[in-house]
Each structure stands twice: as structure tokens, then as C-alpha cells.
């Protein structure tokens, strides 16, 4: 991965920035957070891998991502003899990035029996940390990686012994020559978020099933292993009648009843192909119980939402990184632009939100790892936090990319800079895997069905009680906010549409309480971020000290 790429017309920088940086070495908050979440043994094992990914993402991946974004995949429907082939043709830059993404083990390590014995649930946090660093260089390819991880996870959880042994090693492969990439074909024209409206049919054919229908928004459209929902003939309407099926792209050397009708011309994440697909008698293998498809697919949706949150904070971090380096290099009105008071205020806000979001994301990956080990309290936390963290961080990504462009001025608006791509890529994140309103409803269901909010509020209370003396006032505000959230949920229950109209504010503030609570026992930068978040969301009259500004502006992106 260290070979220098050929000169690219797309790698043009708007300021004299360093040619080779490291997203890991320049992110002290990430390093400190991971060192706290991981055991010393796991941290020693993971740190060199993260350092390597940070360097490669900053240089090697960034170069190729710019090319893959400009020269997006194209669909080749027929060969020269007129035979239907449905082949997606990629620029080599994309395929080269795959060798690092999959080769890093960000997926494969989670399914490695030896690594599981050594590091257990911590592999979720390490794998997602690798994905976070890769995202800073390239966002689009993380979606196929996410889908591949999700297919492997569902087969491991719900598949037969034969399916697990046959397919999971291919999905977890680090060698792209052996790798099977995964996909989830879920969305249909008439359904969208209403998955119960799925119209794809499944008809039993001996040991297999034949699937027929149209899928409308299929990312990683040419994946080798696809999970999809279909309704067996005679099954009830709604989500309870859906089965989960594994469809291989090819069977016996031929396309398996899959027709790619066209590729989407997307606003962002243009390096990765998303298409419309017709299933025309495609052979599928049932995964798990025939009537439990949607419940099983929800596990993949939740993993995808966590990947979405990782991408969101990775994009926000890249926008802040680029802006900070640019402002350090640019002089305006007689001094470096970063020394101007209003610039520092903007960067302080950006960094506080990104630091809080990073704590949300990686603390959630920590709970997921523990939940996978069988911890019931962690399972409750994962259930309610996944939709909340996904929608909050997605909003942060779009805002941070937009603010970053403004900090660059005109140089941030032209395609010579990475900033327009960050904004285009970020805009899909509030849409993928459930829009904000869908996720609010999902969080409310978690409260109603499992009382998962109680586990979250208990965690907030515990963290507030353990806050150091210098954070007592912030802890008091957080404790009060948590109390409001508990009382407000009681008022929302049974209030019908009037209650739902207030639900989004409730979820925002519930998550804010946990976010600030996560920062209470951290270092000075975490404490500064906590106070800044209180100022932004709870009390605008709270002053930001010079020391807090220094921590948030000068200490969050280490100079190259």
C-alpha cells in the first residue's frame, strides 16, 4: 500500500498543505478514546493497524477516491455478441481501494475464531475504527463493506450450519480474489420505508425458492451474495409475512435471474454503484424461519445504521481536518485565518459536535461488542441507541461539511477541493437506513416494547454521579435533562399525534443527555466539548473560556 500513485489531475489542493498526513496520528481524541475503551492487550494489537490505516487513508486512499468519484462505475448490459451480461465496470482506482478496505480486516477480523478468542467483542470497536479512518479518505466504498459485514452477520446468526460454513469465510475474506461482496436488496417502488408493502414473491422450487419482483434502490448492485425479502405465496400481508432469502449473483457460471435495469445517477457516493434490479425467477435460499424475515433483516439494518454513524462522524472529522489545516496555512488581514475570533468560534462548535459524536459512535460499538457476548443490559442500550446515534450523527455530517466549505470560502466550493465531495457524500447519510422520522418512531418502539430508555437513563445517572468535581455543574444540567426526558416520555405515551409531534425533540434531548454524560470523565478536551455542547443546546449564555477554545481549536487536529 505504500507505493506512490501516479500523478492525478484530481489531486489539486487549494492551499499549501502537507502531501502526506495521517488521520490517526493527527486525531488525539480518537486515540485517547480507543485506548480507554479497549483493554491494554487489544490496544497494543490494534494501534499499529490503525496507524497504518490512518496514513494510507490520508494519502493513498484520498488520491484514488478523487478519481473513483469523478469516474463512476458504468453498466455494461451486453457483450459484443449481444449476450446479456449485466456487468458493472469500475475504474481501477476503486478496485485498488478495495484491497486496503477488505485487506485491513475491518470485516474479516470479526469472524476470525483465533482473534475472537483473543479479543472478543472488542473486535467490533477495532473494525469500526478502521472503517472510520478509511471513511475520512473514501466514503462510498464503506457501504459495500457494511453490506458484506451485514450478510456475514445474518448468516452467522440465522443461517444453517451449511450456509455458515459455505458462505461466511468468503464474505470475511481479506483477499479480494477470494472475497464475496455482500448486498441488501430491500427497497421497492411502492414501499420505501414501508417494508411491509414488499411485493416480491417467493415460490418454492424443490430445496430452493424462486423469487420474482423489482428492487428499486440496490447499493453494491453487483455483489456476489445478496440478502433480500420476499413474500411466499399464501403468506400474510405486512412485515410478518416476509421471508429472508440469500440470492447468489451467479449460479453454475451464469447470472442467477438478476437483471440490472440501470444504475442510479446519484448526488454523492458516486464511486459505488447503486441500481435498480429485477428478480426474474432468481434462485434463493431461505435463511432462518420462513416468517421471520423482517425481524432477521432488522439485525442487518441496525448494523448498517451503525456503519452510517461511523461514516457520518468520519466525514465530519475530514471536513474539520481540511478546514483546520487550510485556516492554519491561509493568512487574512495580517495573520493566520485560524487566529480570528469568529473563525475560532466556528471551529469550536464543529469540534465539540464531532468529539461528542465520536464518543457516541465508539461507545455504541463497545456496547455492541458486549451485547454480542450475551450482555442483556448492553443489548437494551444497543436497541435504543442505534437509531438515535444514526440520525443525530447524519445531521452532524451534513452540517459539518457545509460549515467546512464556508470556512474555505470560494476555494471550498470548487471541485479541486475535497470539500464538495464531502458535502455530496454526506447528504445521503440522513436518508440511508431510515430517515430521521422513521428512526424516531423506531426509538419510541424500543421504549414501548423493551423499556430500553430505562437502561440509557440509568447509564446517564451513573456517569453524572461519577463526574469529577470540576464537571459538577455540567453534570447537574445533564441530570436535569435526563429527568425531563423521563417525565416527557410519560406525557408522550398515549397522546396520539400530539405526542408524536413532540417526539423528535424528546429523542434529540435524550441523546444529548447521554452524549454530554459520556464526556464528563474525559480529559480537558472532552470537558471543553461538554461545556460547549451545553452552551450550544441548553444555555447560550454559558461562556467559553480561552482554555476551552484552545483545547477545541488548537488541540483537536495535530499539526502535520
Walkthrough of the structure:
The protein is globular and about 70 Å long. It has 18 helices and 13 strands. The model is unreliable at 1-18 (pLDDT under 50). The strands form four sheets. It has a five-stranded mixed beta barrel with strand order 4-5-11-7-6. The protein is α+β, with helices and mostly antiparallel strands. Among the domains are: 182-293, Butyryl-CoA Dehydrogenase, subunit A, domain 2; 436-554. Helix 5 runs antiparallel to helix 9 (341-372) and helix 10 runs antiparallel to helix 11.
Properties at a glance:
560 residues; alpha+beta; five-stranded mixed β-barrel; 18 helices; 13 strands; globular; disordered N terminus
